[in-house]
Amino acid sequence: MMRRDEISARRKPSSSVLLFQRNPVMMKRKDQTPLVDLCVEKAIDNVKYLGDVSHVDHHMLERILPHCTLEQLMHIEKTNKGMDLSPITDQLWKKFFEKQFGINCTNELYEAKVKKMARAENEAVDRLTKRYKEEDARKQSRQIKTCTKLPPSERRFCGDNGSGYNLSVKSSNIMKKSKKDFLNSFEVKNITAMKRRGIGSTSKYLTF
Question: Which residue has the higher pLDDT, 177 or 117?
Fold first, then answer.
């Protein structure tokens, strides 16, 4: 025979059973859709009303934006100019382009874009080279200055290879020596002595 405590234990439900009975919603928790998925589904249903998506995480936009039409995607990108959506939208734009113009046009567009980028790089290099040359010429002009006119004080004495200056110096030295010899000559000394004594005029004894 079973004891009374065993019989009461069998009849008494466990606490977990009571909890599920009081909250039947908890029994279905595993079958419920996550909140993030509900938000994504709601956004997809109302994708035509989307504009500013700066507050939406990228992993959610990756699931939402593929459901946009070309016009809707264009509107979203214009509304979010300060936000870089290219990691998500580049593939979407490629699909739109291929759908409208074909895969061959995509290849041609890619080649044209590559050529345009190469041309832009070459132009940038040319501009930098030109600026470098201009800056180098400006520095050279500051360092080297050609003297086309001599100052008046220097031009007066300078000739070819300095010969004019040397000639004038030699002439000056000769004149000084001649004057000194003249003053020290015998006749001049006699005239000077006579003047001191007051005898005759100097012109009478001075002969050249």
Answer: 117
